[in-house]
Amino acid sequence: MRSAITVSLVPEAKGGPFVFWDGLAHACEQAASLGYDAIEIFPPAASAIDVAALCALLTRHRLTVAAIGTGGGWVLHQLTLTHADPAVRARAREFIRAIIDLAGGLGAPAIIGSMQGRWEGALAREPALAWLGEALEDLGEHAATHRVPLLYEPLNRYETNMFNRLGDTAAWLRTLRTKNVRILADLFHMNIEEANPAAALREAGALVGHVHFADSNRRAVGLGHTPIAPIAAALREMGYTGFLSAEIFPLPDSTAAARQAIAAFRQHTTLL
Ligand SMILES: [Mn+2]
User: Fold this and answer.
1) What is the rounded CA–CA span in Å between residue 108 and residue 104?
2) Active-site residue 94, yes or no?
3) Is 194 a catalytic site residue?
4) In this predicted model, what pLDDT tens digit does every residue of 63-85 receive, in sequence order?
5) Annotated active-site residue in 40, 194, 203, 247
6) Residue range of the domain that includes 218
């Protein structure tokens, strides 16, 4: 398993679960000095990233990109894949496609989290689910052209009503034609929704493509009350070799959160 830590390039997302907020150069310096393998980026849009400058930073600090989030499309533009307006759904898909191209060029997957949206009001679950499925079929196959998966993240009930649990997500993904969409298992969301997080991970099995490594209160692992040992054991027994990415609040501050997260990563991936 490999370690990663989040950096937000979106000031409007302040208060969100990202550790670093002061640009890619600062994040890469900090991540490398603490011994992380990779950074996970939350950009305002694909076009906001200077790819040459990013590649120079990654090379200098011997880091890779673990994943790139698409939530900027929701935070800044209220774009979702399940919006009632087909023009908004189309814009959402194009926003994500550009991030797939950016991430794919770096050998990393894009993440669909908040841009999955929700069904409500006049919009029933069935059409919303159909739109989400069509988008994942299209975008999943687009990611395959870069030889990277597409990550779909079930969220807790306060953030979406599309999918909240890994088991339901896995069962639905298995009905799609594309086999290139993987589940992002976020331990914070899982602590709210799963009866047994370790069992849920085992049930999703090889579909788990990325993990957000967070404690019950979305602080660094070790600063909340989630029992992490059985979760780490499940991941190891599944043969999971992907990232444990610290998508957490910068509490008590960014550096302390980053230090705690890498210490917990080492504790739970090397001692078991
Ligand atoms: Mn997450």
Assistant:
1) 5
2) no
3) no
4) 999 999 999 999 999 999 999 99
5) 247
6) 2-252
